[in-house]
Amino acid sequence: MNNKKIWLSLAQMGGTEQKYIQEAFDTNWIVPLGPNVNGFEAELKSYLTTEESTQSEKQVVALSAGTAALHLALIMCGVGVGDEVICQSFTFAASANPITYLGATPVFVDSEEETWNICPTLLRTAIEERIKVTGKVPKAIIPVHLYGVPAKMKEILEIAREYGIAVIEDAAEALGSEYLLDGERVRCGMMGTYGVLSFNGNKMITTSGGGALVTPNREMAQRAMFLATQARDNAPHYQHTEIGYNYRMSNICAGIGRGQMEVLEHHLEQRRGNHRFYCEHLKGVPGISVYQQPAEGFDSNYWLSCITIDKAVTGYDREELRLRMDAAGIETRPLWKPLHLQPVFEKVPKYVNGVSERLFDSGLCLPSGSALTEEDLLRVCAVIK
Ligand SMILES: *Cc1c(COP(=O)(O)O)cnc(C)c1O
Q1: pTM for this predicted structure
Q2: What spacing in Å lies between the alpha carbon of 70 and ligand 1's midpoint?
Q3: Is residue 67 lining ligand 1, measured as CB closer than 6 Å?
Q4: Residue 172 beta carbon below 6 angstroms from any ligand 1 atom
Q5: 247 lines ligand 1 (CB under 6 A)
Q6: Is the CB of 64 under 6 A from ligand 1?
Q7: 67-95 pLDDT, tens per residue?
Q8: What mean pLDDT is reported for the chain?
Q9: Percent over 70 (pLDDT), the chain
Q10: pLDDT at 109 over 70
């Protein structure tokens, strides 16, 4: 039997990344900013703006990380000391950490069963109660498209509009996912007031480390670039009237990103293919359910394929399966631990319905990289069976 280690989600290079990096070396653009950064931003923008999309005003700003994009989005939403920001609880800590950088408080809201993302009903409850308790409207809402499955954006955007709250769409895991919004197919990252993408090593595409912010228009893109380059005023000397950050993407990283854009479609096909394979081969295995997008209009990139385990049926729990997989040389990972259960967020307000806790207890992410072979996938399924 083949004992090659099977990893959860490895980066896969397309081959042309080095061409763009070589160009940067040849022209001595080894700095933040440069032709690759401009090129990468233009390519991302054109990819995200689907033909049907009427949102051509939107702009993309390449940054050093998805976390940096969240931080700048919060600043541009006016979040500051003493404010509250509503955040999906079932997500990676990076979705919420930047709220605390600004002296604001995250308020965690649990998920619903269909998309595993923020529950619109509970979101409304949370907003109404926060207004009662604090006398202030939360400054922003951060829904997440977890594992690539779009959140219920129609309902979320309606609630946000009703209360006049900005939406920061965390699409770090959802590059290539699509959602049917008012009859129009829209790519994830393009629906909120701001959108956040990540190009970390294990995401849909990588720049070795990096992210991007989708802004509503050119003016806000310029504001983001200003803040991301140390908030330097227009003067011959170094002049500052605001606090800035060093968040711009380097021309080298952007070169990797441009190469990766050429293979994004391939990565999407591969990851969706992995998911189809798991659905077919694990169908009918008692107690194992492969997680699927809920209905028409929720088009996941299937960044990671996940299963839930019904211990009453299987006789084993997710941790026993994870250890068995590990012994067989297969890396799997529990689903995100809800942020309202994280020790660091112990004292933070939360609106909980039990969904994310149950998913955390019973769920496992399966190997989902774009370079997995049929033999790899068969090995994974064999251990489960
Ligand atoms: C990866 C990730 C981020 C952070 O992106 P970085 O580029 O690693 O900073 C934010 N939110 C979610 C849901 C993520 O998975």
Answers
A1: 0.96
A2: 9
A3: yes
A4: yes
A5: no
A6: no
A7: 999 999 999 999 999 999 999 999 999 99
A8: 95
A9: 98
A10: yes
CB of 88 sitting under 6 A from ligand 1: no
Residue to substitute in 61, 63, 67 for testing ligand 1 pocket (most ligand atoms within 8 angstroms of CB): 67
Q: Which amino acid is at 241?
A: T
Strands 184-187, 178-181: pairing is antiparallel
Q: What pLDDT shows up at residue 110?
A: 98
At 16, which amino acid appears?
T
- Give the model's pLDDT for residue 53: 59
Q: Which residue has the tokens 């099977």?
A: 6
Instruction: With beta carbons less than 8 A apart as the criterion, state whether 21 and 252 touch.
Output: yes
